[in-house]
Amino acid sequence: MAPRKTHSPKVQPRRAAPADAAAPQMNLAESPLAWLARRTGKDGRALVDPTQLIAGERLRADFTRAQLTPRITSRWSEVSGAGTPEAFTDMVLAAKLRVARAMTAVGPELSGVLLDVCCFLKGLEAVERERLWPARTAKVVLGLALDRLAVHYGLSGSTQGRARAPVRSWHAAPETPAQG
Q: For 115-162, where are the alpha helices, taking DSSP H only?
């Protein structure tokens, strides 16, 4: 009798993850911040400067990584234990912490506008309508919030040379023992 061949399923080779696998995929065309950055005011300056845009998009990326965006449809593929702290990866927890720290740094007065515009992608008119603000108020409040957020992230519109950089550590030369 011939030995039986065991049929093993073909093992598919593992594919390497793309280099930007951790970065959430975003469409800048849907961002109200990007739209504001392309528009200019009466003085000819952009409504949102590049530093503010970077800060806002950085907040949006952390918000997306933290999986804080609301779901539109039901997710039937959840495994048991989903929603518990054990189900979150370190990346998700770190992103949630970064969002919380950014909101604390900006303050409760301005954090709501940042979340609405940067994270929930609401337009300025919608924010003004929901909050019963006068026209063009959201643009001013958003600018203030983005400035605070940029300071929190350490972003600046101008570059500083090494002479103005803060001293982060100082090391003294090792002492030599006195010969006696």
A: 124-131, 137-153
The conformation of residue 32, written as its DSSP 8-state character, comes to H
Q: What residues contact residue 160 under an 8 Å CB cut-off, 6+ apart?
A: none
Strand partners, 46: 40
32 within 8 A of 124, measured Cβ to Cβ: yes
* CA dist., res. 117 & res. 138, Å (int): 10
Record the tokens describing residue 34, joined without a space: 């990007």
pLDDT digits (tens, 9 = 90+) for 28-82: 667 889 999 999 888 888 899 999 999 999 999 999 999 888 777 766 665 545 5
| Cβ neighbours, 10 Å, residue 102 | 21
pTM (predicted TM-score):
0.67
Q: Tell me how far CA of residue 46 lies from CA of 21, 43, 52, 77, 108, in angstroms.
A: 32, 9, 11, 44, 26
143-168 burial, b for 16+ CB within 10 Å, e for fewer?
bebbbbbbebbebeeeeeeeeeeeee
Cβ–Cβ under 8 Å, residues 59 and 99: yes
Task: Give which of 148, 51, 157, 156 is closest to 102, Cα–Cα.
Answer: 148
End-to-end CA distance of the chain: 93
